[in-house]
Hints:
Blueprint: H1 24-51, E1 56-57, E2 66-69, E3 76-79, H2 83-86, H3 90-118, H4 131-141
Antiparallel strand pairs: 1-3, 2-3
Helix pairs in contact: 3-4
Amino acid sequence: MDIPRRRRTHFSYHHGNRREPLSGWFQLFQMMPVFLILFLSLFSTFIYPFLYSPPYQFYRTSSHPVERYTKLHSVPYFVKESFGQEYSTAEAVRKLERDVLSVRKQDLREECYAARRRQGFRDVPKDKMPKSCQEYRRLTSSKTRG
Length: 146
C-alpha cells in the first residue's frame, strides 16, 4: 500500500519592499571601527619604542651605550648618554639601582628555575649549578659589594 506523498511547494511573495543594495561608502563606514582598532594597534606597536625608552637595559644598545655597575653587588647595566642629566642626585641613582637589582634578581630567579627544571631539579654541586642560579644565589645571599 503506497501512501501518496504530498509535495511541498515553496511560494515566494514579493510585497514590493525590495531592499536597495548598500552603497560602498556605507559598507566602508560600517567597517570603520575595525579599521580604527587595527590602525591604533599597529600605530602603538611602531610608535611606542620612540615615545618610551626605559632608563636602563641589561645589554648594550644604540640608545643605551654607557655601561654602569650598581654600587651593591656590581651588577652591570647600560644607560643613555644623558643619564647624568636625568639622574643628577644620589637618591635618584640609588632608587634606579634598587630597581636594577630587583629586576635582575627576578630575571635570574626565572632563568634559574627554567634551568633547574631542564635538569630535572636534581641536587648538583655548587660548581655544576647553572650560572643563573649561581648569580641569583650571590645576589640574594650577600649584602656586601660583590
